[in-house]
Amino acid sequence: FDLQPNLAIGALAIDPARPDTLYAGTGDFVDGSGDTIQTTHDGGSTWSDPVRLTGTYPDGTAAYVGSVRSIGVQHGTVLAATDGGLFASTDDGASFTLVDLPNASGVLLAEEVWSIVPTGGSSWVASTTCFSQAPDCFRTSGWGWPSLRSPRSTV
């Protein structure tokens, strides 16, 4: 891994079903920027080429990633929480697509995702901060992401 173009690691995850499979996300919010994820299937002896996290929101706004903050792995699905949004892979990290989380009142917002946690089965929880909006949490069982914030919450 020492020969890679970016050594700032913002997130590391182990596949619980295959402990020799690890995912490393580059960039952290303090030491350096990065927008890629690399995978190893042999406990770190060799690593895949970096997979760049890119995408476009429905309104045409590009998602710019400067750091991978958290990676979750569950049943062959890999989710990456970044300062540019949430990215999903259903092919063990070979490719990623941008996931557009729900926006309050239908207003499109730039999304920052701080953490992503698998909760069993096909369920996940993501914590976010959207510009001009209070922090929020989303839960999914599948790919719908309803907010966990109650209408009266001030979180």
Please name the defining characteristics of this protein.
11 strands; 155 residues; globular; 0% helix; mainly beta; disordered C terminus
What does this structure look like?
The protein has 155 residues and is mainly β. Helix content is 0%, strand content 44%. It is built from no helices and eleven strands. It has strands at residues 9-15, 18-26, 36-40, 51-52, 68-74, 77-82, 85-89, 97-99, 111-120, 123-130, 136-141. The strands form three sheets. Strands 1-2-3-4 form a four-stranded antiparallel sheet, with no helix packed on it. Strands 5-6-7-8 form a four-stranded antiparallel sheet, with no helix packed on it. A hairpin with a 7-residue loop joins strand 7 and strand 8 (97-99). It is globular and about 45 Å long. The model is unreliable at 148-155 (pLDDT under 50).
| Strand composition percent | 35-45%
**Mean pLDDT metric:** 79
- In DSSP terms (H or I, runs of 4 or more residues), the helix count works out at 0
| Strand and helix order | EEEEEEEEEEE
Radius of gyration: 15 Å
The share of residues in helices is: under 10%
Largest sheet: number of strands, sense, barrel closure: 4 strands, antiparallel
Largest sheet: spatial strand order:
1-2-3-4
Number of strands: 11
Taking the alpha carbons of the first and last residues, their distance comes to 40 Å
Category by helix and strand content: mainly beta
Low-confidence spans: 148-155
Shape: globular
